[in-house]
Amino acid sequence: MKIKLLVAFLFVLLITINQSFGQGYRIKTIVIDAGHGGKKPGASGSFSKEKDISLKVALKLGNKIKEDLPDIKVIYTRTKDVDVDLYRRAEIANEANADLFISVHCNSMPPGNKGIKGVETLVAGSHRLKEQDAAIRENADIKLEKNYKSKYDGYDPNNPTTFIILSLLKNAFRDKSIKFAKLIQDSYIKRDERFSRGVKEQGVLVLQRCGMPAVLTEVGFISNKAEEIYINSEKGQNEIAESILAAIKTYKKNIEVK
């Protein structure tokens, strides 16, 4: 009986993979995360704070998505100057069954390195992806049957077969995250002529907890005088938001299968 229940559960997870990126898949929900907030200001420049820039860019990006892609639901992790726990930011995305998670941040360097500039986009480091297992299980639960634990009481989360499915989902998320991150970087370069520092894999907690493709984009160095002025300006913030939007449109076109 337990084997039959396990097979049934694995079948459900296989359906999840197909629903995630298979035929008929559509991006329906995007979660935008403004980094830091409240008593956690993030990096500081000569006249500004990371938390304020990230919020303004996040809100601008959300508004542009709503205008250009009205069928997509936009959810913010915060819309004002408050601190949201890192775990909660990922939970918001998981609970919303989001298709994409975008975290907006600013970069910084210590004194003596103020000439360093550029944009970079991060994805979860492959060496830390074990922390994504729980998020994937939770997301599969939300997508399909909230009562699966009672319905499939023979499910053993430690069974190696289950982790084969989890690995498939995890690798799919990682692959899509990297592709989307590259699109963002390409957009920054081609549209805004920014200096690109590339796509990097790092052990970023908020990304590790997301059960969907997720990126953290560093929109510029607040420690660089010229970039601080740019990322605080209305023009700069609009260009950044437009570049991320362009990447979303390309990603959407590439991933949605009719």
Automatic annotation (TrEMBL):
EC primary class: hydrolase
Catalytic activity, EC: 3.5.1.28
Keywords: Hydrolase
Domain MurNAc-LAA: 90-249
CDD domains (alphabetical): MurNAc-LAA (cd02696)
InterPro entries per record: MurNAc-LAA_cat, N-acetylmuramoyl_amidase_3
Keyword tRNA processing: no
Catalysed reactions, semicolon-separated: Hydrolyzes the link between N-acetylmuramoyl residues and L-amino acid residues in certain cell-wall glycopeptides
Domain of life of the source: Bacteria
Protein's name according to its UniProt entry: N-acetylmuramoyl-L-alanine amidase
Classification lineage: Bacteria, Pseudomonadati, Bacteroidota, Sphingobacteriia, Sphingobacteriales
